[in-house]
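Trying the structure run again after the queue cleared.
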Amino acid sequence: MPIQTDFKFNQKHSGAPAVPKTTAKAISEVDFLGLLRELCGDEPAGNAQRTWKGPGFNMIWRPNKPDVTPGFGNQPHFLQLNMTDETLSFTDISGPTGIANRGLLQKDIFLGGVAYLQTINDSFDNTGQHFEPGVFNNVPETENPGESETVVRMGSIPHGTTINMQGRSFTAPEPRIEPTSIVPFRIGSVDDGVTDLLPFAEQDLSTPTDSRTDLTRVAELDQAHLDNPNLFLTDVLADQTITETVVLVLSSDSTLPGSVPDVGGGTANIAFLAGKGVPPAGGPNANTPRVSAVFWIERGADKDGKPLLQLQYTQRVILDFNGLSWPHVTVATLRPIDPSTVA
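Done. C-alpha cells:
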C-alpha cells in the first residue's frame, strides 16, 4: 500500500513574488522528479502514486550466538534464505515548487521527492521480513559543491540502520545486470568479489548444515542462483523484449573511485549494531558500513508481445561482524498493480 498522504511541498522560490498555488509548471517546465517520475507515474495529479508488486529473493549472513540462540546451528553465523513477495509503493510529494534547499554558498535548489514504502514477506509462510519507509530525491546540478545532477535514496530500517544513498540516473535501451557475490571477505578489503574471500560450507547447498535456512523453505533455489542472486533478474528478462530502461545507480559510499557525487551519503547504526571495542570480547554485533543498489525501470513487451512495465533491482548491504564483511543481497522483479499504467 502507498503512503496515504495528500502532503505536497509548497515553498517560495528566490525572486518569486509569492508561493505558487497551482502546478509545478508555474515554476519550471522541467519535472522536478526527472527520471524518478517513472517510479510513481503522473496520476493522480499532485500526488501521483504507483504501487509495484512481485517476487524476489533475499539472502543474509547474520550473526549467531549458539549458546543462547539454539536452533540456528553451532557457528557464529547463520545463512538466512528467503523467497519473497514484495510490495513497493511510491507517492510524489514534490508539490508545485519542489523541496527547497536554501544555499549559503550558492543559490537555492529545489529537489523532486518521492516518498516510498517497502514491505517484504517470506513467500513460504507469509512472515514479515522487511519494512522500510523513505524518500527518493532528484537533486539538480550544483556549483558549490560542484556536482552534476544526482539521485538520492534515504531509508530507515527498523533494525536500527538509516541509509543515505546517492548516485546517477540515466536511460539505456535495455538493462545491463552484472553478477553479484555472496562470499564474505575480510573487513577493510576491497569489495570486488575476488580479494580476501572466505567462503563457508553453508554456501554449498549440497552440504547439510543447521547453520542455514531449511532448504524445503526455498525449494526453487539452486546453487547457481545462490552464488549469483542476480540470475533471478536475468532469468525474467530472457523471454522479454526491453526497449527503454531508466537506470538508478546508488551507493552510500562516496569515497569510492569515480563516485558521483564524491561527497556526502553514508549509513548510521544504533549502538547495539555498531558495538564497542574489538573482537573477540568487543566489536560490532552487525554494523552496516555501506549499501549499494541498482534499479532498472523497464518498458517493452512480454513473451506474448503485450506492453510491459516492470521494476527490477539488486541491493547489496554489507554487515560487519566477527572480523568479516558479510554480504546481504536482495533482488526482486515487480510490476504495477494497476495494469492501466503499462500503456
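Residues 138 and 151 are 5 Å apart (CA to CA). Worth checking whether this holds up in the mutant runs.
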